[in-house]
Design brief:
InterPro entries: NAD(P)-bd_dom_sf, P5C_Rdtase_cat_N, STEAP_metalloreductase. By secondary structure, the protein is an alpha/beta fold. Helix content is 28%, strand content 24%. Strands 1, 2, 3, 4, 5, 7, 8, 9, 10 and 13 form a ten-stranded mixed β-sheet that branches. The radius of gyration is 16 Å and the shape is globular.
Amino acid sequence: MSYAIIGFGKIGHALARAFARRGIEVLVATTRDPESFASDAAAIGPGIIPTKLADAVKADVIFLAVRFASHADVAKALPSWQGKIIVDVTNAYGTPPEEMDGLPPAQFVARAFPGGRLVKCFNHLGATVLGQHPAVHGGRRVVFLSSDDDGAAAEIGALAEKLGFAPIELGGLADGGLLVQGRGDSWGRLIFKDLVKFD
């Protein structure tokens, strides 16, 4: 399984640190030349590989860590996303619901990636918290996930476990997705909830 993070801002950096802690290689890409952020990637770890967007989208699992408004631009990188898992880490806070055709934000994003299997995850925590070690006082930091594809949800749940987090499934995008999604001028009920699960 190959992984890529599209977007290398604060959230992209936090995700990259999670991969680096576990020694899992991940590609990172933006619309900029990879050389412009190569030193940032190297500072996180040797398995954080800066690359071009066209190469990053070849990965099996793609983390969408861009501004919500930019997801459509990323989607244009491939004519079909068949078989790929898209992990939507965006938040639509500030985007009026009517601009999303009345759809929940995650479903609106999913529509832009034809053939892709979208999972909403890793977006409910701020970058500072997400970037911290997920082991907390003998427990594991919770990440919520939702998807309309049970298989994709299971795969990302397993990856979250491997990264040291405690995944909790919230169901489909229309219901669970709204609990962890900002849109318009409101936030979902679970946004910014920093919870720890003890086994």
